[in-house]
Amino acid sequence: MHLTNAITIDGDLQRIYQLGAEIERWPEILPHYRRVQIVRASADGRRVEAKMAARRGRIPVSWVCRQERLPDEPRITFRHIGGFTKGMDVAWTFEQHPDGLVTVRIDHEFRKGWPLIDDFVSERVVGEFFVSAIAGRTLATVKQIAERERAAQVEPKGQA
Known about the structure:
Elements: E1 2-9, H1 13-21, H2 26-29, E2 33-41, E3 47-56, E4 59-70, E5 75-82, E6 89-96, E7 102-109, H3 118-154
Antiparallel strand pairs: 1-7, 2-3, 3-4, 4-5, 5-6, 6-7
C-alpha cells in the first residue's frame, strides 16, 4: 500500500512543522488522538519512541513507533515497530511555496505480507479505512490551527 494525504496551509512553515513533530502534544490538539506516551527520546529530542492511540470514528487503534525529526529538511519520519501496522513507514514532508503557502504531505508505505489477502488488508482495511481517515483528520486539524494562528497575527489591533 502506498497512500498519500496532502493539504495546503496558509501558515508559518516552522509552526506547521512543530505541530506535526511534537507528537507528545497531539492528544491536546488533535481530538481523534487518545494518548501518546513517549517511551524514550534521544538527548537532542530528534529521535523519539512512542506508544500512540487514536480513534477512527468509534474504533480505537494503537501502535508503537519510532519518530525522527529532521527540521533542516524539513521532514518527519515514523517507523511503526509495534501493533497491527508494524513495518509501516510514514514520512511527513513540507513544501514552502513562493506565495507563502505550505503543502504538507504524509506518505505511508505498508504491506502486511499475508498471502492471498495482503492487498485487501493493506489497501482497503489499513489504508483506506484507517490510515487515510486518521491522517486526513490530522492534516485538517493542523491546517485549522495554523491558519487560525496566522489570522490572529495579521488581524489589526483593536479588532476582535
